[in-house]
Design goal:
The complex is a heterodimer of chains A (443) and B (322). Chain A is α/β, with parallel strands linked by helices and 443 residues long. Chain A folds into 2 domains: 54-190 and 330-395, 3-Layer(aba) Sandwich (Rossmann fold); 192-322 and 407-423, Response regulator (Rossmann fold), CATH 3.40.50. Chain A is built from 13 helices and 18 strands. Chain A has helices at residues 2-22, 68-84, 111-123, 136-148, 192-205, 219-232, 253-260, 277-286, 302-308, 310-313, 331-344, 352-369, 374-382, and strands at residues 27-29, 54-61, 88-89, 92-100, 102-103, 108-109, 127-132, 152-155, 185-187, 210-215, 238-244, 266-270, 292-295, 317-322, 385-389, 392-395, 407-413, 416-423. In chain A, strands 1, 2, 3, 4, 7, 8 and 9 form a 7-stranded mixed beta sheet that branches. In chain A, α8 links the parallel β12 and β13 (292-295). In chain A, 59% of the residues are buried. Chain B contains 12 helices and 2 strands, in the order ααααβαααααβααα. Chain B has a two-stranded antiparallel ribbon. The chains are: A alpha/beta (443), B mainly alpha (322). At the A-B interface, α1, α2, α7, α8 and α9 of A face α1, α4, β1, α10 and α11 of B.
Chain lengths: 443, 322
């Protein structure tokens, strides 16, 4: 047994090395037409000081691992927003840095790297906004660190309700993320309470009567599966069972064989491509079930279709998503999609526009206040109002959440996501009798 | 209910056979060197990546006519076996052999290092621009391995009665391939000169050397054969599970290693038995206890087995290793 102990120690040490070695490689993106300020290289560790005319916006997203395709388009969105300003906001030169919060060891976001990123941002006096994270679990780590420093954090992708909404997560949430007592975390994407309910609404629209709920036991996956389950009944969908499963298992044929005996109309999976949604889609077919698969926005990426094999998801997989998918956008949103295509030569993935808007919000607020003082910026963020931007008109509520509640559903056809339904628009009329999850967060 | 249980039996047995196939490589190397080759799972992973590359390059699909399909598959199996065997041999030659006389921890830590290196190679490989790999840009995402074997359900024709059971050609392939490979390996170790040399080396390398056995050659051959087995296992696994991933070596390595220990490490029939136990416990735990308890139930039972039979199920009866 001695050998195994040594193995674990050695593995941990190596993992640590891997984390340090390749976890975070900040890529400095300097906007064309601006000069690299010499002070940047030797920024003092205290927030006081720094280059007076330089502001830094950083993003902390998993750039190593399977979320990379999504985060690349988020980063592209952020870059577009920064470049639209010409690298100048008010008296400041804007510098954007793309930080990685994943490690090669985990192939996914890594708590240690996320914490290091947050500390680094707090200690760099030039950093005025922290864009991120992608994973709600990572946000839990960064939020309190940044909150103490009143450093504004804007997430383009976190959807776990407990991060902002009192009474919807653990008893100590969200206060535990706000040690200063003030709101410094904002998100531009609608949270899971809206998405979980939209899933139930859509299932009803498609004529689903019964569902079996699975989740990956993660913060995001279990959270959304719970909200779905709580809402299903009020939309006339009977939940036949709810189980958490090992997201790293090789296959789920045994589990699916058991579910097959119950013959549900749908399997709802609270999870992502990284937590094996593709294998679930595959094994539903493999055991000969007729059930369709519904999954949340963590699966709305081409990687999901590739992982499942398109023959297993065409007409069989249904994905909910916050907001309107890129190809359905109109007005300013369409302008964004068009210029994205022109600039990067590919389709923006679902979150790209949120990356763009998150950066836009930070830059606009910065322009309004014309100050690098973090508390001043934080206070101005609370009052921010978007008027006819890429996501339309909205503002932040008292929890720091967007007031947008539009959701959409996409099916898969011929290996591509295809917009299928607009959901959750009428949140004024949520299902009755589902107290915690119903209705938008009351300020 | 009978159908469901019979189905779980089929799933458990096939999964168990896959674990057993991977376990053979661990158990062979351990039997001879008393050294756990943690990179074995990752050699298996890279062989699966090669298999997917070949499937993509040769454009093998379900529409390929059966004769051509069989020939192509055989070619892929051979290529993967050669690749994985060669890779495993090379790892031993370059990394482990210079450490043969070093303290036991040195090769162990090197094995972990090799495992990380191979995973990164897999990550890099996964980012290749081929269509089967998702066209690049999603290096770390799981990759679908196309279902190229026929989808005919053999259950009805095989048992002669109407049944809800699903028994696909690939289930039979997994079991058939595993049984043949294990029998061949057993035969090799028991009834050939090389096998005799292997058993002698396992018992006492120094004495074997005194008897004129080229121990380095024997060890090299062991790595070559173990790697080739991982290559074959990778193709069988990919055809059966239909998903490959750069981290799959770790998960499967863990299961295979456990199977080897439960069966009695260093013992070939033991590895098979251990794999089957693992597969069946997994299936029935999912059916009757719940998926969230699967790892706890599985490893709980394994601990109980090891408490009562510390040397593994077949460990104490077989005195000779390998």
């Amino acid at each position: 047994m001695q050998r195994r102990t040594f193995f674990h120690t050695a593995a941990t040490a190596l993992a640590l090395l891997a984390t340090l070695g390749c976890g975070k490689k900040p890529v400095e993106v300097l906007v064309p037409g601006t000069e690299k300020p010499p002070e940047l290289a030797a920024a003092p560790s205290s927030p006081a000081g720094g280059a007076p005319n330089v502001v830094k916006i950083v993003s902390s997203l998993p750039r190593t691992g399977s979320a990379n395709a999504q985060t690349t388009t988020i980063v592209n969105g952020i870059k577009m927003a920064v470049e639209e300003t010409g690298g100048k906001v008010g008296p400041f030169t804007v510098v954007y840095e793309d930080w990685d919060d994943a490690s090669a060891k985990k192939g996914d976001w890594d708590p240690e790297v996320e914490a290091a990123n947050a500390d680094k941002a707090v200690n760099d006096p030039n950093v005025v906004a922290y864009l991120g994270t992608y994973n709600s679990g990572a946000a839990k780590i960064a939020m309190p660190i940044l909150n103490k420093a009143a450093l504004v954090m804007i997430s383009p992708a976190n959807t776990y309700t407990g991060l902002t909404k009192p009474g919807m997560g653990e008893p100590n949430e969200p206060a535990v993320y706000r040690p200063s007592g003030k709101v410094s975390y904002f998100r531009v994407v609608p949270a899971d309470d809206i998405q979980g309910r939209a899933g139930a609404e859509w299932m009803q629209k498609m004529g689903g009567k019964t569902a079996y709920v699975l989740d990956d036991r993660g913060l995001y996956g279990k959270g959304i599966a719970d909200v779905f389950e709580a809402n299903a009944e009020s939309y006339g969908v009977k939940v036949l069972g709810h189980e958490g499963m090992d997201p790293k298992a090789q296959e789920y044929r045994s589990l699916m064989t058991k579910i097959k005996a119950l013959d549900p109309d749908f399997v709802f999976y609270g999870g992502t491509t990284q937590t094996n949604a593709g294998q679930i889609a595959k094994d539903i077919i493999a055991v000969g079930m007729r059930a369709k698969l519904m999954a949340p926005d963590g699966c709305r990426e081409d990687a999901f279709i590739n992982a499942a094999g398109q023959e297993n998801v065409n007409g069989r997989a249904f994905i909910t998503f916050g907001g309107v998918p890129p190809e359905q956008m109109v007005g300013k949103g369409k302008e964004f999609v068009d210029s994205y295509r022109a600039k990067y030569g590919g389709e923006p993935e679902a979150y790209a526009v949120y990356g763009y808007v998150a950066a836009k919000v930070a830059l606009e607020v910065l322009g309004q206040v014309g100050s690098k003082d973090r508390e001043t910026i934080r206070a101005a963020m609370e009052k921010y109002e978007a008027k006819g931007g890429a996501l339309g008109s909205w503002k932040f509520d008292a929890n720091g959440d967007t007031t947008l509640t539009t959701m959409s559903g996409s099916g898969v056809e011929a290996g591509k996501f295809k917009f299928a339904a607009l959901l959750g628009g009428a949140v004024e009329a949520p299902a009755a009798g589902t107290a915690p999850a119903a209705g938008p967060a009351a300020p | 209910m009978f159908d469901t249980i019979a189905q779980q039996l089929i799933i458990g047995l096939t999964n168990g056979m896959v674990f057993a196939l991977v376990a053979l490589g661990y158990t062979m190397v351990y039997g001879i060197l008393e050294f756990i080759n943690f990179a074995h799972g990752d050699v298996f992973m890279l062989a699966a990546f090669l298999a997917l590359t070949l499937v993509g390059a040769l454009d093998v699909t379900q529409q390929t006519p059966p004769g051509t399909l069989a020939a192509l598959l055989l070619g892929i199996v051979v290529a993967c076996a050669l690749f994985a065997g060669g890779l495993n041999y090379a790892i031993d030659r370059v990394v482990y052999r210079p450490l043969r006389r070093a303290p036991k921890l040195a090769p162990l830590v090197s094995a972990i290092g090799v495992s990380f290196i191979l995973q990164n190679v897999g990550l890099f490989w996964g980012g290749s621009a081929m269509a089967v790999f998702g066209g690049g840009g999603q290096a770390a995402a799981p990759k679908a391995f196309p279902d190229i074997l026929p989808q005919t359900n053999l259950a009805a024709s095989l048992f002669g009665v109407e049944t809800k059971l699903t028994l696909l050609p690939k289930d039979l392939l997994v079991m058939g391939a595993s049984v043949v490979i294990m029998a061949a390996l057993y035969g090799l170790v028991r009834h050939t000169k090389l096998g005799k040399a292997m058993r002698a080396t396992a018992q006492d390398p120094n004495a074997a050397r005194l008897m004129g056995i080229d121990v380095d050659k024997v060890v090299g051959a062991t790595f070559l054969i173990g790697g080739a087995l991982a290559g074959v296992a990778a193709v069988v696994y990919s055809l059966y599970i239909n998903t490959i991933h750069y981290q799959m070596g770790y998960q499967n390595g863990l299961y295979a290693f456990t199977a080897a220990v439960v069966g009695g490490i260093g013992n070939i029939p033991g590895a098979v038995l251990g794999g089957l136990v693992l597969g069946l416990v997994r299936a029935f735990s999912d059916q009757f206890i719940g998926a969230q308890w699967q790892p706890a139930v599985l490893f709980g039972i394994l601990i109980v087995i090891l408490v009562f039979r510390p040397a593994g199920l077949l460990g104490s009866t077989a005195r000779e290793k390998v």
